[in-house]
Design goal:
Shape: globular
Strand content: 15-25%
Helix content: 25-40%
Number of strands: 4
Number of helices: 3
Radius of gyration: 15 Å
Order of helices and strands: HHEHEEE
Length: 115
């Protein structure tokens, strides 16, 4: 339980630990999903459309969190249709019909506000 509380604290939710999912905002629910995924310290974090159902501000929070985790050494594979999310990471692999059509190294962004 200590490890779970540490992860919740890292994603800014330690004060909401006893709340039910219906009592959390969409962004808080996404952060809980990230926290749940991180509790066992996986070597690889898979994120499937982590911002798909969120408003712009909350999406930016989630992407900044993923970016911070990546900077701290967490390997993240994210699937998204949102072209704007590419600015948060240093490598983008474009797949079309199951084939790699582009594998692009981007310049590393210093913070999530970089365009």
């Amino acid at each position: 339980q200590k490890q779970a509380m540490e992860v919740l604290d890292r994603v800014g939710l330690s004060g909401r630990a006893k709340h039910l999912p219906s009592q959390l905002s969409g962004g808080e629910q996404e952060r809980v999903a990230v926290a749940r995924a991180l509790v066992n310290r996986p070597p690889l974090l898979l994120a499937d459309e982590p911002t798909g159902s969120l408003d712009t501000a909350t999406s930016e929070e989630i992407m900044a969190l993923l970016q911070d985790l990546n900077r701290d050494g967490q390997t993240i594979v994210m699937v998204t249709h949102n072209e704007e999310n590419r600015r948060y990471f240093h490598r983008v692999v474009l797949l079309r019909d199951g084939l790699v059509v582009n594998d692009e190294a981007l310049s590393a962004k210093s913070d999530s506000s970089a365009a």
